[in-house]
Amino acid sequence: MSQVIFLQDFFVHQHLGGGELHDAVVINYFKSRGLLYDEVNTYNVTPEYILQNTDKAWFISNFVALKNVCKALLAKYCKYVIYEHDYKFLKNRNPIVYPNFLAPDKSHKYNFSFYQNAEKIICLSKFHKKIFDDNLGLSNIDNINCSMWEDSDLELMKSLNNSPKNGKYAVIQSDNKIKKTKETVSYCEKAQINFDLIKADNHHDFLKILAPYQALVFQTGHPEPTPRIAVEAKMLNCNFMSQKNLIGVAHEDWFHLNGNALIKEVRDMRDKACLKLESILL
Predict the structure, then answer these.
(1) Quick one: CATH architecture of 4-148+268-281?
(2) How far is CA 110 from CA 61, 92, 119, 137, in A?
(3) In terms of pTM, does the model score above 0.90?
(4) Whole-angstrom Cα Rg for the chain
C-alpha cells in the first residue's frame, strides 16, 4: 500500500488558520489508516528528498514556499494531489481583480504545468472549482463541497448551538488585513448594527464566544473557497451576513441547513471526502 507524504507551508501547530485546521483533519485521517509516511514543510523540501521518495503518494496543500525545481521534479516523477485552499494559479492568488474571476491570458497565470501534472486538484466548493475550471481548463479538477472538522469540533458546536442568543452581532477582531476587520466595523456602523468585536486564543474558545450571538458579520476581499467560519456560524445557529456572491459554500445545495442538521451533513461530507482522497492517492 502506498504511503503519503503531506506537504504544507505551515501546519496547525505552527499557524492556527482555517487551512491548517482543515489539513489537520486530513492528516489525522491518513494517520488513522496507517497511510501517513511524513509531514514536511514546503520550505524544507529538497530535490534529494523528492528523488528518494518517488514511490510515495504526495498530498500537497499550501505550497507557496515550495521551490520551482521541486515542483518540476514532482511533476516529472511523482504521483501527487494538490489540495487547494486559494488560487495559486495566479501570482497574487486573488481572482477578484478580474471580470468574472477570469484572468485574461497566460501572462497572469502561474504553476500551470504543476497543476496539469497533478493526479487531481481538489477544490473546496462548486464556486471554487468553477474558478479553477474557467481559468485552467483542465480535466483533473475535483471538488469536496466543504471544509472539514474533527468530531470533537462538531460535538462542541452541537453542545453550544442551543445557547440563548444575545440579540447582538459579532465581528472577528484581527490585525490580519485579509480578515477585513476595519471594513466590517465600518459596514456595521453605517448600517447601525449593534456589534461586538470578538477574538480568542484558540479555536474552541472562539466557538464558545461566538455561540450566543445572533449573527456573524463577515466581509471579504476575495472569492472565498468556503470559508470555514461561514459554516461554523450556521452550525452554531448564528446567522451569517456577508457578500454571498463571494462565499463559496453559499453556492452549495446544503447551505440552507443550520444547527444539528448541518452538523450531520458536514460530518457525512467529511467522511465521504476522506474516502475519496484515499481512493485518489492509492
Answers:
(1) 3-Layer(aba) Sandwich (3.40)
(2) 16, 10, 18, 14
(3) yes
(4) 19
